[in-house]
Structure formats: structure tokens, C-alpha cells
Amino acid sequence: xxxxxxxxxxxxxxxxxxxxxxxxxxxxxxxxxxxxxxxxxxxxxxxxxxxxxxxxxxxxxxxxxxxxxxxxxxxxxxxxxxxxxxxxxxxxxxxxxxxxxxxxxxxxxxxxxxxxxxxxxxxxxxxxxxxxxxxxxxxxxxxxxxxxxxxxxxxxxxxxxxxxxxxxxxxxxxxxxxxxxxxxxxxxxxxxxxxxxxxx
Amino acid sequence: xxxxxxxxxxxxxxxxxxxxxxxxxxxxxxxxxxxxxxxxxxxxxxxxxxxxxxxxxxxxxxxxxxxxxxxxxxxxxxxxxxxxxxxxxxxxxxxxxxx
Lengths: 200, 99
Prior knowledge:
The structure holds two protein chains of two kinds.
Chain A: H1 5-25, H2 29-54, H3 57-67, H4 69-95, H5 119-128, H6 131-152, H7 167-171, H8 179-183, H9 190-199
Chain B: H1 3-23, H2 27-52, H3 56-84
Helix pairs in contact in B: 1-2, 2-3
């Protein structure tokens, strides 16, 4: 069960929701809402779709890993040791440096319509001080959307038959009953050639 | 709860993600662990933003979320392309750039 990526995705959704609660505790209401809506909503739906599309591979991959267990267990132990070292290092860097402010509760907070963490505050910052970052992020999203479509599109030779659009197809859908079809010339493939013939 | 605990949680989440990226072989799980690392960074950013009381860290966290969404889009597109070409879905087997 642990090798099945679907459960990993569900666990990550739970983690994202709990992280949003931590953001709320840190008085960042807008970021918490974005975390729930964008991350736990949109991005994870994408993951679930791809896992469902690719899925079923989890068990075979797990079996293959178990067959080559000697090498993979060594790698796992090495990874765990490296991760533990990284954790110790991060904890030293974050907590062991004697920063005075990290042991406090943060800057004083006053409630109000446009104070820290509210959508109005974030929006004002995004459109004034961080306008360049905002625009760059939107361009990045556009590039990523185009790239995702290009990467995941159906390539030639995989489909059963090539769909080619001609001006005739744009004028009327195929098989909707025209005179040419009544005479018996124009069926699906033949209509294109015969259409070209009519023009000649 | 002082800021230090949030930083500790973010360090733990980041290290767990790093362990996952290093040890797992399914690229889907590797991407999930990458998300975990980005979220650890996000939590640290928000904690520091709360510490200083201004919104710069929150803006950076939102930009990090955007970058993570782009990364997911491209990564999942690549996984779908790998699956379509019927290559093994295993980061150790995919050594060549040439498909």
C-alpha cells in the first residue's frame, strides 16, 4: 500500500491542508486560502488524474525494487542518513544560531481591514512593490501551460488515423447529408479528395 | 507557540522531502517529495514574514507556489509523455535524454 502513489497523493493533500492551518496560525489568511484552493485543490487534482492515468505501475515498480533489494536497501539507508544530516544541519542553522526573534511570537499584530495578511494587503503589495515579480510569475505560468500541452499532446503515429481539417470540413460537418453524399462520392476519407476535385 | 517551532517543522518537512527525492524511484513520488520540499520552504518564509511583520515573505511564498504549479505542470506532462512512449516509469532506467 505504501508503494502505491495514489496514497502518497492523498497523504500530500492532508499535509497541504494541515500546512494551511499552520499558515492561519501565523496570521497569513490569504496565503492559507491560496494554499487550500490552488495547492490542495487544483494541483492535487492534476496529480490524481495523472496517477489514475499512469497508475497500476506502483506494484510492478515495487516488485522490481524488492527483487533488487540489496542495492536499493543500501541506497535507502544512505538516503536516510543524508536526510538526517540535512535535518540536523537545518535545525542548527535555523535554531542554533541564537537569533533572538525566533524565540518570540513575531511582530505585534493589530486587527483591521487592511493589515498584515489580508487579501487587500497582499494585493496592494503585489501590484505596487512586487509588480515585476507578479508579471514574471504570470509569464512563467503561461510558458508552463504551453509546455505542458506540447509535452503531453498525442504525437503522430500513435493514433489510429490522422485527422486532417480541410476548408470543406469547416463549412459543414462530415456526414450531415449533402448532395455530394447523396450521389455517393463523399464519404469520410473520399470527401477531401473529391472536394479538391470540385475546385479544379 | 513561538516562531522557532514553525521553523523546526519546516526543517523536518524539507528533510523528509529530500529523503524522498533521494530514495524513491517512481518519478511521480519524486515530484510529490519535491512539493514537500517547496512547502517546507514556504512555511519558513511565512514564519519569517510573521517574525518581521511585513508581507514580503508572503509574496515570495505565493511566487514559490506559482513556480511549484509550473513545475508540476511540466513534470506531469513529461510523465505522461514517458508513459505514452511505453518507457519504464523509473528514474533509474531513464538515463538517456534521447527518447
